[in-house]
Amino acid sequence: xxxxxxxxxxLEAGLHLATDVNWMPIVRIEYLESFAKLVLMNTDPNSFMSxxxxxxxxxxxxxxxxxxxxxxxxxYGDEQxxxxxxxxxxx
Length: 91
Prior knowledge:
Elements: H1 3-12, H2 29-41, H3 51-72, H4 78-87
């Protein structure tokens, strides 16, 4: 969900966006409940991922970032190390 969509939903729920203060304004629970319902109505349940899916996505992203760092070194054998990093967990 984009920032603009969140702001639109918050305004629709009756929340006032105070961007000129450095403190947490007090919000009535009714506005928060309304906001939560609107967020649920505007969120596709198919976009949710489980803890396991999130952990796996993080592992893969970290592995790929490490492999790219190896490749960027420009030294002999870098591709071999990068390939080995990418292959982790596939055996």
